Amino acid sequence: MGVVGPSPSGSSPPDGGWGWVVVFGAFISIGFSYAFPKALTIYFKEIQRDFGVSYSQIAWVSSIMLAVMYAGGPISSILVNRYGSRPVVITGGVMCGVAMVTASFGSSITHLYMCVGIIGGVGLSFNLQPSLTIIGKYFQVKRPIANGLAMAGSPVFLCTLAPLNQFLFDRFGWRGGFVILGAMLLNCCVAGALMRPLCDGRPTSVCQAAWSVGGAPAVPLKPLPDRVRTPEAPCGGGDKERPSGRAPLRGRSCAESLSCFLDLSLFGHRGFVIYLMGNVLMFFGFFAPMIFLAPYAKHRGVDEYSAASLLSVLAIVDMLARPGTGLLANTRLVRRRVQYLFSFAVAYNGVCHLLCPLASGYWGLVAYAVCYGVVYGMVCALLFECLMDLVGPGRFSSAVGLVTILECCPVLLGPPIAGALVDMFADYSYLFYMCGAVMLTAGLFLFTMNYWNYRQLNRAKHTQDRTSELGERTVQHGVQSGHPRADHKAAGVGDPGLGQETGTLQVKAETEDNIV
Amino acid sequence: MLRFGQVLRSYCRSLLSSAVNAMNFLLIFLYWQGVSTVANSAVTPETDYAVTYHETIVSKGHVIVQELEILKPQKIELSCIISDIPNNPTHIIGYWKKNGNEIENSKQTVYKVDKQRFIFKRIFNIQVNDLGNYSCIFSYLDKQEQVTFLLKVPVMKDKRDKPIVSYVGDSVVLDCKIKRMPNTWQWYKSNGTEKVLINATADPMNYKILLEKNVTKLTVLNLTEEDAGKYICSAVFEIKSSESHVYLKVLSLIEPLKPFIGITIEVVILVTLILLYERYGRSRNDSSVVTENGPNCEPTDKLTQDDSSGTDGRRTRQRNLVH
Questions:
Q1: Residues A74, A122: contact at Cβ < 8 Å?
Q2: Measured in Å, how far apart are chain A's first and last C-alpha atoms?
Q3: In this complex, which of B292, B294, B320 lies closest to A479 when CB atoms are compared?
Q4: Residue in A100, A164, A186 to test binding to B, most B beta-carbons within 10 Å
Q5: CA atoms in the 13 A half-sphere facing the CB of A202
Q6: Which residues contact A271 (CB under 8 A, 6 or more apart)?
Q7: If you average pLDDT over residues A259-281, what whole number do you get?
Q8: Which of A45, A235, A472 is best to mutate for the B interface (most B CBs within 10 A)?
Q9: CB contact under 8 A, B312 and A480
Q10: Helix (H/G/I), strand (E/B), else coil: B144
Q11: For residue range A236-254, what is the model confidence (pLDDT) as tens digits?
Q12: Per UniProt, which keywords does this protein have (chain B) (predicted)?
């Protein structure tokens, strides 16, 4: 059947147009979410002196903020499922602004933990998850590029926020700096305003489909054979039945309501579980080398400014690597098997760390920083693209919430464990060996498990194709009708792994969001 | 009369015993060496008062500078040991300089101590005005070698060029630290050219001073605009004080509010513009579609399709291709 290029009338998502403006909004939101906790450390020395606390106590502020940002994922997902991305991001921006302004009046470290750590962390999590979700809704063909560009916000904002924070600190002290940072975080509301919701008629949560059919909750992708959508149909037809659907909600139990808002059936999804396990393992060794790079350089005899410049090199390379990886992942060859690229990036990351202790002198460390920047950017750019690829945009918002709350633990524990290794052996090499080994294992695990997963899906797809051919022969003229679909779905519902659709070799140029 | 004699005798006895005690104290004081210095310090047995001495070994071609931290007035013997001189002369001429000026009558001829070395030394009585640079200079053949000893109180080396910023009504902590423990610390506020001592006990509402061996902290409470300026912390040693300064800037609360309000206004304007643009654009293009998401939503595709999620789009296309 030959290769078909992307049709000009577009796939289901717009894939361009206002989508690029949404990418810019997501760029801002994601940039603030990832870069802000790290950039705050510039104020720590003075706060430490003013409050009379030790460095480890003040470092908890950043850790709490990052932990709450990750742990707030499910709440964020529930809200996005219910209200869409725009209101959640605007709320998140306002929360962050309020958090920083109240923190500037603080007189004790506990006050900072509450305001900056908890409220600020929740605000940032309301920025992160919706931004990722809306990219999946707006893009399908060009989604890897969109993801790469949006994730590039993190290094760009880190490079900008660090000197800006230093300037604010010199000019206004830490209290004035916090007030002004609160105002800057309000710009996330601008980013949220850019995220126009899509009127595609798709029920945005499992619940709406369930309510409309009156079926039990937590059944993924239940077919709706009586609904034929045209572009003129009112958007969100399923939502119109929401008022009637609300009455049954009260009769449901707590667990049912939770699974109504958050798709817990994902834990039965083979690809999702593989992704989750690989990522949780990977995050133990992901952030620690970056945190310890500058101290390691100083330990090897590099002076302070050169050690700081290593991090700048890393950030700049990272900035370029993320959109570059997005472009690479968008090519025909890679798009079908993007999980392999991700596993390769993770494994290569591990190899890079294992070789780091061999680097000698300043230029050896620069070479390591460049390699690290490239692979770090690759992993970050593909992180959520792979998840979208596995579960599809409909379930992505629930998936990202579940993934972030489970990743919260290794993200928090990784750097202190690495620090403990350094203290125990008084040698940074063991830190790099540990991180390298962990990531290499994670990469190999992902590679082999995804290979197995692809084979399983291929097999299931072949059996499905055979049954569909039989069905097609009888329904040749019914192209637009949904009945053969229902047959396919009915055939496929029993297999939990078949929540994904197949990507066949026939339509190479078409990008799929689910791969067999 | 007898009683008066007894009183007189007891008085004389007590006077004598106290005088003896004072003498003892004097002797103990002279024997006590309390300075700690960088190089070796020991009591040389041949002198009858305590000194500390320092030696430096000079090889050809190196200019050597040694820093010595002096905490109290004392006598110090500085000695330079010279070795490895070519042509092995029997004696060399040397003299001492203080702060670049030759000390009178310090020139002397130095003879070899053992086969290779010359030792050139001198005892200096260091009081508060005697701190400075002392150099031993010796010449042989046509060359001159020099070793310099820098005698000074311990210095606080932290860079303090950036001011500490705080706000009216807030409190701020200023700190100083030094390597050697001083007798005490003192804080001054600088008014133009003069220093005003800060007395925390006299003014506990505004100042709190914490003294902790090598560290001192001054807490200034209830800040006002007049509290801004230069603060000087002084580590008091017996011989002299070592000083460092820190600048304090006090801002009013309005200062950071100006950029805050500016940025907030910018955000509100941008959000309003974006939403208005959406509404205006939507009402211009779109007539019939009243959407659940409100009038501001982005339309999706033009193909009719049947799917409960977006994932079946491909199947439709595939089916289209098949046909």
A1: no
A2: 19
A3: B320
A4: A186
A5: 31
A6: A339, A390, A391, A450, A453, A497, A500
A7: 85
A8: A235
A9: no
A10: strand
A11: 333 333 333 344 444 455 5
A12: Immunoglobulin domain, Membrane, Transmembrane, Transmembrane helix
- Are B136 and B51 in contact by the 8 Å Cβ rule? The answer is no
Confidence of residue B312 (pLDDT cuts 50, 70, 90): very low
Contact predicate A417/A284, CB 8 Å = yes
Look up the CATH architecture of domain B51-152.
Answer: Sandwich (2.60)
- The contacts of residue B270 (CB under 8 Å, 6+ apart) are A190, A193
Mutate to test the interface with A, among B158, B170, B306, B319 (most CBs of A within 10 A): B306
d(CA B284, CA B272): 18
Rounded distance between C-alpha atoms, residue A24 and residue A151, angstroms:
10
Query: Would you say residue A477 has pLDDT above 50?
Result: yes
**How distant, in Å, are the alpha carbons of A186, A304, B130, B214, B237 from that of B35?**
60, 35, 16, 17, 11
- DSSP of B13-32: HHHHHHHHHHHHHHHHHHH-
Contact A191, A95 (CB under 8 A): no
pLDDT score at A124: 95
Residue-range domain boundaries for chain B: 51-152, 164-255
From A121's Cα to the closest Cα of chain B, the distance in A is 21
Same fold, B51-152 and B164-255: yes
User: Which neighbouring-strand residues pair with B146?
Assistant: B137
DSSP state, residue A118: I
Nearest to B149 by CA among B56, B41, B60, B242: B56
Listed in order, strand segments (DSSP E) in B132-261 are 132-140, 143-152, 164-167, 172-177, 184-191, 194-197, 207-212, 215-220, 229-236, 241-251
pLDDT tens readout for residues B10-42: 665 666 555 555 444 444 333 333 322 333 333
Residue closest to A161 by CA, chosen among A291, A289, A310, A42: A42
CA B309 – CA A202 distance, rounded (Å): 6
**Tokens 């290979």, residue located:** A451
- β-strands B184-191, B194-197 pairing: antiparallel
CB proximity A6 to B under 8 Å: no
b/e A300-324 (16+ beta carbons within 10 angstroms → b): bebeeeebebbbebbbbbbbebbbb
- pLDDT, one tens digit per residue, over B230-244 is 999 888 888 888 889
Residue B51 and residue B283: Cα distance in Å, rounded? 96
Instruction: Find the residue in B nearest to A509 (Cα).
Output: B314
Amino acid identity of residue A30, one-letter, is I
Nearest to A82 by CA among A263, A250, A277, A225: A263
- Give the closest residue to B215 by CA, choosing from B158, B286, B263, B288: B158
Q: Considering only CA atoms, give the Rg of chain B.
A: 40
Distance CA B106, CA B103 (A): 6
Interatomic CA distance for residues A467 and A212, integer angstroms: 29
Q: Rounded CA gap, A210 and A207, in Å?
A: 5
Q: Which CATH superfamily groups domain B164-255?
A: Immunoglobulins (2.60.40.10)
Residue among B180, B199, B181 at smallest CA distance from B189? B199
Q: What predicted TM-score, i.e. pTM, was given to this entire model?
A: 0.72
Position with higher pLDDT, A315 vs A506: A315
**Tens digit of pLDDT for each residue in A321-371?**
999 999 999 998 888 889 999 999 999 999 999 988 888 888 889 999 999
CA dist B7 → B2, B17, B18 (Å): 9, 15, 16
What size, in residues, is chain A?
Answer: 516
Identify the three-state secondary structure at position B9.
helix
Min CA distance, B323 vs chain A (Å)?
Answer: 8
